[in-house]
Amino acid sequence: MTQRERILAAIRGEPTDLIPFVPRMNLWRIAHEARGTTPPRFAGMDTLQIAEEMGVACHSVGMVSTIDERRPEDYALRCLGVENHPDNPYWIELRGLPMTTQVDGGRYTTVIKTPAGDLTAVQVYTPEMRRDGISVPYMEKFPISSADDFKAVAIFFEHLEVVPKPEAYAAFRRRMGERGLAVANGLMGAGPLHHLLHDCMPQEDFFYYFTDEQDALRSLAKRMEPFFHKLLAAVEACEAEAVLWGGNYDQNITWPPFFEEEITPWLQLIGRRLHARGKLLINHTDGENHELLRLFPACGIDVGESVCPLPMTRCSLKQVRDGMGPRMAVWGGLCSIAFLKDSMSDAAFESYLDGIFSELGTGERLVFGISDMVPVDADFQRLERLMERIRAFGPVRPRKG
Q1: pLDDT at residue 71, as a whole number
Q2: In the chain, what are the helix, strand and coil shares in percent, each to the nearest 5?
């Protein structure tokens, strides 16, 4: 089977020759390139070539593709959670509102003028961040400073135009070929309220607004809905087999009642529309999800990606797989600290793998990955040992019925 075929079969609960392994290598590559410490084996290689050299699938979930170098204009709208990427099946433009971005070294100050007032945001991206394997700017100042900014933010979203670019995604898919699953990107915020929490303000501020300014917050979210529908239509129209939309949940931040009331309905809607086009819905479920697992099956999610288990969260891989239910595939399942020598001894690592593989059952609906990424200082012998264990586990033959 090709890498792409193996991933798709695993997600669909079909037989595979091996459990797919899709380690996220792009941040590892960025850091070592910046440090000048790339191992000779991978010198001069891009992310796709590194995956090929390792004999694994290339990871492409969440704007992680074969393109690591990004243009400043890709990040111009990111201060409000709208990030353009050359592989996306759309391009998002702000029309009818003046916007300026001042660049001072690694500091990007953006000012958006609206009839309801100016929105100002500051993003920072430094060489030190790159050496640490960070690929996107850090939000130093969010555009929402108080509830007084809600009307300006609503106007911003009403002036966003979604330009379908199916050809951009098609080029990405051709470049990926059979070396991995070319996942199209939607938004990490499942719906408008989640988007505001995730991308537009400090999280602690959201909780204050949700308590004290909920009517105004909901009014803003309502005015954002047309943008969400336009973006979903552009994603639906491309040839992607799988779409990432929604993620970064945590039971303490996207607490269960909020998840059930504000996130589940949007995921159900998005899932129905994608499924009608024959597409799979992927969610980036990388947080502490012990109290959320019971809610996932009702959402229409096909894949919980970047699953992070014990010892970094409360749930074992088996508990996550059981909790997500028999129809939802798990992508991830291996905690990143296990691949660091200063976090886990060799003997403890071997014991860790023993525990993982002893609970796999048939191994169906599983795509192995390291959550959320392969650490910059990962021990490659441990990666190779994992691959040996995957080969030893052998073909996956799902249970019938």
Answers
A1: 73
A2: 45, 15, 40
Cα(205)–Cα(220) distance, integer angstroms: 15
CA distance 171 to 176: 9
Q: Comparing C-alpha atoms, which of 3, 39, 27 is closest to residue 390?
A: 3
Identify how many contiguous H helices and E strands the chain contains and give both numbers. 14, 12
Taking the CB of residue 170, how many other CB atoms lie within 10 A of it? 16
pLDDT of residue 74: 76
Element (H, E) at 392: helix 380-393
- Kindly provide the residue ranges of all beta strands, DSSP E only, lying in 209-274, ordered along the sequence: 242-247
- Condensed to tens digits (0 to 9), the pLDDT of residues 144-163 reads 999 999 999 999 999 999 99
Its sign, for the CA torsion 86, 8, 281, 27, is negative
Q: What is the mean pLDDT of residues 272-283?
A: 98
CB-count exposure of residue 134 (10 Å: 0-12, 13-18, 19+): middle
Burial of 297 (0-12, 13-18, 19+ CB in 10 A): middle
Tokens in use for 49? 């070539």
**What does the pLDDT read at residue 35?**
96
Using alpha carbons only, give the angle 27, 31, 35 rounded to the nearest 5 degrees: 170
Q: What is the rounded distance in angstroms from the CA atom of residue 84 to the CA atom of residue 91?
A: 6
pLDDT interval class at 105 (50, 70, 90): confident
Q: Phi and psi (nearest 5°) for 142?
A: -80, 155
- All domains of the chain, ordered by start, with CATH? 3-91+165-393 (3.20.20.210)
pLDDT band with cut points at 50, 70 and 90 for residue 68: low
CA-closest candidate to residue 245, choices 190, 195, 175, 299:
190
Mean pLDDT of 106-116: 95
Whether the predicted pLDDT of 41 surpasses 70: yes
- Tell me the sheet residues that pair with 242: 280
Predicted local distance difference test score (pLDDT) of residue 69? 64
